[in-house]
Every structure is written in structure tokens, then in C-alpha cells.
Write a structure and sequence with these properties.
Elements (H helix, E strand, L loop, with lengths): L1 H13 L3 H32 L6 H17 L3 H8 L12 H8 L7 E8 L2 H13 L4 E6 L6 H15 L3 E6 L9 H9 L3 E4 L7 H6 L8 E5 L3 E5 L5 H6 L4 E5 L2 H15 L26 E8 L7 H12 L3 E5 L3 E2 L2 H12 L3 E7 L7 H7 L1 H6 L3 E5 L8 E4 L3 E5 L3 E2 H5 L3 E7 L1 H14 L3 E3 L9 H7 L6
Helix pairs in contact: 3-11, 6-7, 12-13, 14-18
Length: 471
């Protein structure tokens, strides 16, 4: 019996010897490559999207550079400028808890500004160019997209010219989102004296770089001479300046200090250097709020994926939960988390007029089915969903109860609420809210109000919807 089993095993082994063995290996070779490739892709995706970075430890690590500078220097006046709650009592009482929510985690509190709402890309371009040309001391710029087209090159030329004149020009390059732009484009800026740092910092280990590779700097910030600020939805690109419908802000007043703070925080975290005291970057330190009774109550709120909580998502839900009359949103992309859809449903069921305006056509093919996959769920939740025709609408705005309004960089989607670095500006002011409300109304004539009977979700849209958290 033992002899029989041994002979059988020898025969079984012989079938893998010689030519047969190598033929079998050749047949298995492509399968092994496919398996290893899929395994590698799965590991990479897990590293990029499967790790939740939201913790106080990661938040402190990300922001330690600026915190260390502020602790090492005399910044008592700066602390008062950015984080004092002295203006909170001027906010309408029922919205005061929102101001505290937005200020959590060391974010700026309420300050004063003189805002100018910009809805024309051409107007933004002309105003920005004029302010850049007049800059005397410093220019700080941080954009998700900084193009290589005609208008972008003109702005780049001004930045280079001002740097040659001795103006301190600092530029944060979102190097992953702008990867098609050759390094020579930014190398020329550096040669002219512009300080350029890449947002995705490779100073740390390759593993850490890959784990944070999906996090994009979606903010739009300009601070000129520490006195003038720009923020909102418009990037630097011909599309925004001449083709699309968008909403942006030009700010003056103390709220510019909050924009400056957000920029410097990112600048240091990305590897940039500051060669003077932090206080020198804040013009309004010598102009206390008590001497400026006039202005719009403003709160600039940055958010990022290392924050212990998604502050903008929490704020949107708070607004919906406490609205009394209406909440109107504009957003080019909609892939809201379930908690936000639930808040919309609850508000609508209380009789609140909840509206969301989206463009009929998206600028990217992948977002078109994702947007449409949420139409049925939103309309069934009681949301009045307006689809805007005409030019692509890129605005990210909120207006609520003729008092609260917001212009920012955050979309109503997973990426803005959990993955990207965003910055929104909230206003507690009736006049600003009514202006934003009128802008929404002005867009309605070219909108179509969808009914639940008109929309259905296709299998393709349901499949694409699963990509919403990562695209």
C-alpha cells in the first residue's frame, strides 16, 4: 500500500516537471501579474481613502508650525483680533451658537468687513489685476486651479513683475490638481523672486505622502498688502473669468486677517518660510474693533480633513435644523452625505423652504451621472431642486431667513465635507443676505423645477454614485 502511494505521488509530481511545468508557469504568469496589480491598487486606494485622519492629534500636527510661531512671539493683540468673541453679541441671538460652532478648533471668530459680492468673472479679473498692480508690500495667493491660459499668464506676469519690484509674493501651488502644468511654468516664477511652495509636501515619508495624496487644497485665497482679500468660488482660469457663472468676494476690513491666518497656516504646513514676526502680517492689529463700529459681521471659516470634526458639514446641518423660513443653496456638484440629506428632509417637513440650485450640465463627465443620481432622493425629501440652464454655474452659496448668508469654496459633496481643504465666509447681516437672495432669484428664470415624477435613478448613475466620495 505504501509502495502504491509513493508511486502515485511520483507520477503526480512528474506532471509538473520539465516542459509541462514551465508551460503551466507561463499560463499562470499573467494571472499573477493581474492579481498583484489589483492588490497593489487596492492597497493604494485604502491608503488614500480608507484612513480617517480626523483627530485632534493630526489636527495639531498639521497646524503646529503656525502655533509654534505664535507661542514664541508676542501675539496677544493677534489673539484678540482673530479669536475674540467680543462681536458675537452683535449677532442675532438665535445664530450665536452657530458662530461658536464655526470658531471651534482654533478657527477665527466673528470680525468686521466691507464685502463686495462678485458674480462676473470679468469683474473679478479686472478688480484683482488692479489690486495686484497697486500692491506695495505683499501678495499672498492660494488657488485650487491656476491656469496656463491667457488671463492666467497675465496674472502670473504681474506676480513676477511685483516680485522684481521688491514686493513679497508668496504662492501656494496645488501641485496635484495642476499636474498637467509643466514645472517650468512655476520655475520661472521662482526665478523672478516669487516664493512658490507645493501644497502636497513630500518632505515627509513616501508612505505619508501617498496617504494624504487625495487631499486637495480647494481654497481660493488672495491677500494683498494685508488689507484686501479675495475668496469664494472662482479660480484663476479663463473659464471662470469669461465663461461660467460663479460667486466670489472682495473683502476689506478686519476679516482679511482671518484669510491671512488661513493662508499662513497652509504656507507653513506646506514648507514655506516666514522671515519676519507673525504680527507683521496683520495690518489691523493697530485698529481695534472698538474703534470700528461700522462693518458687516463676518466669519471666515477654514476646514480641512485633519480637523477633529467636519465643521462645514456640521454648520450646514445646524442651519437646516434651526432655519425658520427658508434655506437656499447653490452648488455645481451635489453628492451630500446621508446626514445632510436627513437634515434637509427634516427642515422641509417642518415647513422650511429648502431649495438647491444646480447646473444642467457639469464641467466634468464623471460628475454628471453622480449629480443626477441624487435628484430623486432630494426631491422625495421635499427639497425644491432647480436645474439651471445656460452657462455652467460654479457658485457655492447659502442664504437663510434674510439674515445668514455664505459664499465659499465648498460644494455639497463628500469631497468638500471630508477630503478637501476648504474655506467659507459667513455673513450675519440682512443687507448681504437680501443681496444673495436676489442673486438666487435672478437665476430662476433659466431654471427648471424638477418634480419627483420627472426623475429616476438609472443603474449607471447608482454605480457612479459609489465613486462620489473619491472623485
Amino acid at each position: 500500500m505504501a509502495h502504491f502511494l509513493l508511486e502515485k505521488n511520483i507520477k503526480s509530481l512528474s506532471c509538473y516537471s520539465g516542459t509541462d511545468y514551465y508551460a503551466q508557469a507561463e499560463r499562470m504568469h499573467p494571472l499573477i501579474i493581474i492579481f498583484l496589480t489589483l492588490f497593489g491598487v487596492a492597497v493604494l486606494l485604502w491608503l488614500m481613502f480608507g484612513i480617517n485622519w480626523r483627530s485632534s492629534r493630526n489636527y495639531e500636527r498639521k497646524h503646529r508650525w503656525l502655533h509654534a510661531r505664535m507661542q514664541a512671539e508676542d501675539t496677544e493683540a493677534l489673539q484678540r483680533l482673530l479669536f475674540s468673541n467680543s462681536l458675537t453679541m452683535r449677532v442675532e441671538q438665535r445664530f450665536r451658537p452657530l458662530t461658536m460652532l464655526l470658531a471651534r478648533g482654533g478657527r477665527p471668530s466673528v470680525s468686521l468687513s466691507t464685502p463686495q459680492i462678485i458674480t462676473s468673472g470679468k469683474d473679478k479679473y479686472n478688480m484683482l489685476m488692479s489690486d495686484l498692480i497697486c500692491a506695495k508690500e505683499s501678495i499672498h495667493m492660494e488657488y485650487f486651479h491656476f491656469g496656463i491660459d491667457k488671463s492666467s499668464r497675465k496674472i502670473r506676469q504681474v506676480l513676477m513683475a511685483k516680485a522684481r519690484q521688491g514686493v513679497k509674493v508668496r504662492f501656494i501651488n496645488e501641485n496635484i490638481a495642476n499636474w498637467p502644468i509643466p514645472n517650468l511654468y512655476f520655475r520661472s516664477m521662482r526665478k523672478a523672486g516669487v516664493e512658490v511652495v507645493n501644497f502636497s509636501d513630500s518632505r515627509f515619508s513616501l508612505l505619508r505622502f501617498l496617504m494624504t495624496l487625495s487631499y486637495r487644497d480647494h481654497r481660493k485665497i488672495v491677500v494683498i498688502d494685508n488689507r484686501i482679500g479675495y475668496t469664494g468660488g472662482m479660480n484663476i482660469n479663463d473659464h471662470y473669468f469669461y465663461q461660467w457663472r460663479d460667486t466670489h468676494l472682495r473683502l476689506t476690513g478686519e476679516a482679511v486677517a482671518s484669510l491671512q491666518y488661513a493662508f499662513l497656516d497652509t504656507w507653513l504646513a506646506a514648507g514655506g518660510q516666514l522671515y519676519s514676526a507673525v504680527n507683521s502680517f496683520f495690518f489691523h492689529l493697530d485698529k481695534p474693533s472698538s474703534g470700528q463700529s461700522l462693518g458687516t459681521l463676518t466669519q471666515v471659516t477654514p476646514d480641512d480633513p485633519t480637523s477633529p470634526e467636519p465643521v462645514l458639514l456640521t454648520a450646514y446641518e445646524w442651519i437646516l435644523n434651526h432655519a425658520q423660513s427658508y434655506v437656499w443653496f447653490q452648488s455645481p456638484y451635489i453628492a451630500p452625505p446621508p446626514s445632510l440629506i436627513s437634515a434637509m428632509r427634516n427642515a422641509a417637513q417642518r415647513g422650511v423652504d429648502v431649495r438647491v440650485m444646480v447646473p444642467e450640465h457639469c464641467d466634468t463627465a464623471i460628475m454628471r451621472p453622480i449629480n443626477k443620481s441624487y435628484y430623486a432622493e432630494l426631491t422625495e425629501a421635499g427639497v425644491q431642486l432647480y436645474v439651471r440652464s445656460g452657462e455652467f454655474m460654479h457658485s457655492k452659496t447659502i442664504v437663510c431667513d434674510d439674515y445668514l448668508s455664505c459664499v465659499g469654496s465648498a460644494n455639497l459633496d463628500y469631497r468638500s465635507f471630508g477630503i478637501d481643504y476648504e474655506i467659507n465666509t459667513f455673513f450675519y447681516d440682512r443687507a448681504v443676505a437680501l443681496r444673495q437672495k436676489q442673486l438666487f432669484v435672478d437665476d430662476l428664470p433659466i431654471c427648471h423645477l424638477l418634480s419627483s415624477a420627472e426623475v429616476r435613478t438609472t443603474p449607471w448613475q447608482r454605480l457612479m454614485r459609489h465613486l462620489a466620495p473619491i472623485v
